[in-house]
């Protein structure tokens, strides 16, 4: 196992390693001078950037452009692979932050890069592998929906707290007080910044969280209870309304994209 600190001072244009973290570990906000591709093999993680939040589980990948400020919070024990890609291998077309399903080809290319450790010559073959990997990430189907953060720091503080504890049952008056606002000001500003009401946004947080947990193998009943639903039936109704599929459909598939 290797960590970022163990990388050589002058690594090849593409370099990767495998690692694992224990549940509860928080990799505080930081940046890399290269693009970062992470593939998650086991466990669940929340990745926050300055403007967005992503919840990822096994079989999913996350691409972050170079110099993207980000934080990772391990919701469970986590096993993953990470590859750092120099901008010279990406090309002129921008590849923004993206959460996607990791195909068998992407997994194989990442395995090949990691197997080379850090002691290899960036020959024609390795250059072709790296460019094909970037192309496959670019083509990969985006999954789920990122959760946007508001620009107002008071609202962001509330949103971060809810994402950290999506089953929290406090009402809107409580969160308005936490933000230091009157309820009317809070609801108006939230709608203005997020394009939806507070209750709708919190429901979306819960179903995205639920999708990740169910895909990872948790029972629907337990997920519904943990996220504050009175029963599995009401939870399933809300889930279907958001994703257009029943929660049971996630047992052996990826997190779907929420309906517009």
TrEMBL record:
Q: Which stretches make up the HTH araC/xylS-type domain?
A: 153-253
> Which keywords, in A-to-Z order, does the entry hold?
Activator, DNA-binding, Transcription, Transcription regulation
A Pfam family: AraC_binding
Keyword DNA-binding carried by entry: yes
Q: Which PROSITE patterns match?
A: HTH_ARAC_FAMILY_2
The name on file for this protein is: Helix-turn-helix domain-containing protein
């Amino acid at each position: 196992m290797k960590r970022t600190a163990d990388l050589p001072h002058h690594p090849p244009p593409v370099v990767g390693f495998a690692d694992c973290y224990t549940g509860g570990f928080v990799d505080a906000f930081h940046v890399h001078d290269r693009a970062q591709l992470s593939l998650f093999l086991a466990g669940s993680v929340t990745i926050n950037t300055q403007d967005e939040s992503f919840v990822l589980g096994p079989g999913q990948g996350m691409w972050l452009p170079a110099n993207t400020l980000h934080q990772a919070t391990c919701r469970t024990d986590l096993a993953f692979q990470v590859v750092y890609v120099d901008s010279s291998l990406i090309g002129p077309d921008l590849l923004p932050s993206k959460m996607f399903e990791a195909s068998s080809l992407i997994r194989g290319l990442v395995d090949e890069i990691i197997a080379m450790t850090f002691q290899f010559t960036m020959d024609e073959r390795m250059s072709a592998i790296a460019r094909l990997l970037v192309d496959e990430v670019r083509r990969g189907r985006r999954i789920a929906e990122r959760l946007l953060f508001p620009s107002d720091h008071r609202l962001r503080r509330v949103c971060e707290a809810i994402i950290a504890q999506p089953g929290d049952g406090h009402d809107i008056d409580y969160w308005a007080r936490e933000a230091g606002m009157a309820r009317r000001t809070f609801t108006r500003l939230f709608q203005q910044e997020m394009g939806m009401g507070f209750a709708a946004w919190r429901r979306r947080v819960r179903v995205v969280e639920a999708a990740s947990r169910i895909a990872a193998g948790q029972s629907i009943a337990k997920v519904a209870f943990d996220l504050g639903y009175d029963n599995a039936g009401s939870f399933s109704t809300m889930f279907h309304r958001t994703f257009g599929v029943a929660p049971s459909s996630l047992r052996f598939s990826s997190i779907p994209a929420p309906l517009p």
